[in-house]
Amino acid sequence: MNELRGKRILVTGGTGSLGQTLVRRILSGEMGEPGLVTVFSRDEAKQHYMRLEFLNREKATDEVIYERAADRLRFRIGDVRDLAALSSAMREADVVFHAAALKQVPSCEYFPFEAVQTNVIGAQNVVRAVEDAGPQVEQVVGISTDKACKPINVMGMTKALQERIIIEANRSTSGTKFNCVRYGNVIASRGSIVPLFVDQIRNGQSVTITMREMTRFLLSLDRAVDTVFEAIRSGRRGCTFVPKVPAANIVDVARALMGESEVPIVETGIRPGEKIHEIMVSEEECFRTIESNGYYVILPVLPELRGADEAAPALKAEYSSKDDNIGVAELRELLAGANDEIKRFMASA
Question: Which domain holds residue 101?
Answer without folding.
Answer: 8-348
